[in-house]
Design goal:
The protein has ten helices and eight strands. The chain has 314 residues and is α/β, with parallel strands linked by helices.
């Protein structure tokens, strides 16, 4: 699924639910499993078979929701044949848009999200659900004994994880894992900033950690995918921009203070050199002025963020 800027997803009337009754009131004992899928006919049946067996083993009321994100193959047909409820989007809207549609259609407050490509082990879901009563989000961190992440992606993932951890001020074992247990209310809280594309999981991770939401990480394995990956190298820049943008929204001083410090140190270094040369230059003034402007913008942005994020803020 390619992440592109798109208009907001139409309200629940647009997607169609195949073969289901109207949604029931949320039930804290039940679990909705949401599987976003775009052209995943190769792995969808195996994924759903594993999910059905695992969820029956939990003894919890549950539903399996496959959000067909405008697939051009037989993903929807095979998912329905495997016994899942299929929510059909009229066109490919993106990973995040599919998840939003799934959360809107879910009839239980506790929602599990998992990819359709067979990379995430369904058997790990019960261990995540064990923590769902105490945490608003439980993340399956891909740090288990068997992790099949392509080597070419690892440097970019390591850099993004380091950047995100610095900005939120705590370690992040897995920034964008696609296996999570999330309370539906958490998605509703941040839905206005959650993107339509792959960055959905990165954004909700950053937003939650920046807002002191209780997040639990549980180690899981990560398997080789079935079918072709939708992730492309260009997405690394998109993820980096998203991380910076999210932190500017929640904690702008984390960005403005260090960038301003670079300008200040540059100006101060040039000032010392100019004193030695007995010739004060415009570069020194520019460095000090740039630092002052950045710090002022940071303080103003911080005040705006605090007002807008507090209960009742606008």
């Amino acid at each position: 699924m390619t992440e592109t800027p798109r208009a907001n997803l139409p309200r629940p009337a647009a997607p169609t639910r195949r073969g289901v009754e109207p949604a029931e009131p949320p039930d804290s004992g039940g679990v909705s499993v949401v599987v976003p899928a775009f052209d995943e006919e190769e792995g969808i049946v195996e994924t759903l078979t594993d999910l059905a067996a695992v969820m029956r083993g939990t003894g919890r009321p549950h539903e399996l929701l496959v959000v067909d994100d405008g697939s051009t193959d037989r993903t929807a047909e095979r998912a329905q044949g495997a016994g899942a409820t299929v929510i059909s989007l009229p066109e490919n809207r993106g990973y995040g848009a599919a998840l939003k549609a799934g959360f809107r259609a879910a009839k239980f407050e506790t929602v599990v999200i998992i990819d359709a490509d067979g990379t995430y082990p369904a058997a790990a879901i019960p261990s995540l659900l064990e923590h769902a009563d105490r945490y608003e989000m439980v993340v399956g961190a891909r740090v288990g004994e068997h992790v099949e992440i392509p080597l070419v992606r690892r440097p970019a993932k390591a850099f993004l994880a380091w950047l995100a951890a610095y900005l939120v001020g705590r370690p992040i074992p897995d920034l964008n894992s696609g296996l999570r247990v999330i309370r539906r209310a958490l998605v509703q809280r941040f839905e206005h900033i959650l993107p339509q594309g792959f960055s959905f999981t990165t954004t909700i991770t950053m937003a939650s950690l920046s807002s002191d939401v209780l997040v639990k990480y549980v180690p899981i394995d990560y398997l080789a995918r079935l079918g072709e990956s939708k992730i492309r190298p260009r997405h690394a820049f998109d993820f980096t921009l998203l991380i910076v943008r999210t932190i500017v929204y929640f904690n702008p001083l984390k960005i403005f203070l260090p960038v301003g410090a670079v300008f200040f140190l540059g100006g101060f270094t040039k000032f010392v050199y100019d004193i030695y040369k007995d010739n004060l230059s415009e570069t020194t003034v520019t460095g000090f002025l740039g630092a002052a402007i950045l710090w002022a913008c940071g303080l103003l942005s911080d005040q705006i963020a605090r007002v807008s994020l507090r209960p009742g803020g606008s």
